[in-house]
Amino acid sequence: MLQQTRVDTVIPYYERFLKAFPRVERLAEAPLEDVLSLWSGLGYYRRARMLHAAARAVCELHGGVFPRSAVELRTLPGVGRYTAGAVASIACGERAAIVDGNVARVVARLFALLSDPTRGAGLARVWSIAEALVPANDPGTFNEALMELGATVCTPRAPQCGTCPLAAPCQARARGLTDELPRIQSKKAPVPVHLAALVVQRRGRVLLAHRRAESGLFAGLWEFPSVAARGSGETADLPERFAELVGATPRDLVACGELVHVLSHRRLTVQVVRASLDGKIVPAAGLDGGVYDDVRFCALSRLGTLPRAALTDRVLALAEAQAREASGPRRAGRLTPQRALVRSRSES
Known about the structure:
By secondary structure, the protein is an alpha+beta fold. It is built from 12 helices and 8 strands. The strands form 2 sheets. Strands 5-1-7-6 form a 4-stranded mixed β-sheet, with helices on both faces. Strands 2, 3, 4 and 8 form a 4-stranded antiparallel β-sheet that branches. A hairpin with a 2-residue loop joins β2 and β3 (205-211). The two termini are 18 Å apart.
């Protein structure tokens, strides 16, 4: 849970998760949807799927006993070199290294490494050095101290070299390279993705679609039926394309606005539209081989219990806000190809 997520954000999720799954057997036996539901809002849902798969592997392959060595830990789904080293050294006392961003920065400065320590040959060099540095006596405490040093003293900007316990042997300080190191290549900008999301409410229920477990982005989660949009404000064929998903053509489409939702590698621009839908939902060919494996009406009161991304809540909030505004003196216009969507952007 702590991977790329703040501690204060994680704590309530962690407590609820342990209450629901106090033992690895309970987690292994639970349906994936229950696991994803408890993870909803935390993001990076692949972590939840891998944690569930790892629990099953522990029970099926290791008799319910968690592996204690870094080598064995890396055989579990979702457990990489960093996690294996952290668990093995801190929990089990094994002499195993840990390399995170803080450790990479400390090592890069301590040894004046000029290559990018977060990728390729530079990262391999950092791991090699970290493994050599870890003592056999209390390796977990050493690893935690090295990470803490990077987080509080050897910081990315304005490092506290005057109080650093490694100031004397630090090659970057001796060579005047502290402010230049580490040399990290710029990250690629998130890929822009344009979507249109359909919000249909009927007698206290809302239309939702379930992403296939293997469909990539938001896999295994419930969301409002969405289709790819050609660009911001492009609306010409939305009714027909939504009809392919739900088996009925939505009518009276109303533009609610746009949301911008930024993920680690994608920047989603989501057009939100409200609509009415007559008759039964009969998912058509759009489900065959598509990203969804189910489309149905669900009680709005149950939405909070379903596994879903934070984006789903934001889409609903925007649609409901627009509906309240439309019910007042100023009524919203119907959606036409010529009518530009009102933009309501916010970052996440």
